[in-house]
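Problem 12. The chain below contains 252 residues. Write out its predicted structure in token notation.
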Amino acid sequence: MIAASLLCFLTFYLALGSTKGFSIINTNIINSRLHYTTTITQTALAAKGKGSGSNKKKNKTARTTTKGFGAPPPNLEDVLAKIKTRTPLVDNVNDVMCPCGSGKSHGECCGPFLSGDKLCTTPMDVLRTRYTAFTWRNIKYIIDTTHETCRDYREDKVAWAKDLNKGGMFDSFAFVGLDPIKEEEGADENESYIEFKVTLRANEDRGGAVAGQETIITERSRFLRSKTDGTWSYASGDVRSDVAGLEDVALN
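Solution.
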């Protein structure tokens, strides 16, 4: 059940104004609480060549202008290597208590999943490990455990990672606690739902949120199992908040 909280976190961040993560939130509903603005600067690459009129010079110019377009675009590994994480700066992170609340060390709990040594064989595995991934800003794991049918899923992993880094990792909040409620079976053995609550605490005064203020988000998340390898991933979520006036309003 603890794993479910992870999904709630990302979705809550969306509820506060982001458009990336487990679920897409209707920001118009909560526009009065928080506001985020992202400015995207676009650059264009142009190559110019001079011609003298002679075929020889024109051909030389043509050959010249097909070069010098710069380095190839970065791949996902290049982008992830430059992204800041919140992983504890300790000698051995596996000795740290796991953020998911299991009471175990990271090495005994979520660590092997995040390192790729273990796969998620239950919905709870997905939730718990994604919670830890959000806590420590492990963007690659969030991407890897999002089902392809999820509306947040993107084929362009590089752009997805960059967008998560900009506004999808709860950088203005501290992860306070998980409160799993119940797990339900889906239409068949390859679908499951988990309902849970997550508490986030604002780190600063921003857009209507006051530093230290806590907000509880409830989510009912849907998980799907791969028929190929049996692993589970996050597919969608129905999110609600305890914010006054929004208790019964679906935020996504």
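Discussion. Residues 80 and 140 are 7 Å apart (CA to CA). Students who got a different answer should revisit the alignment rule from Section 12.3.
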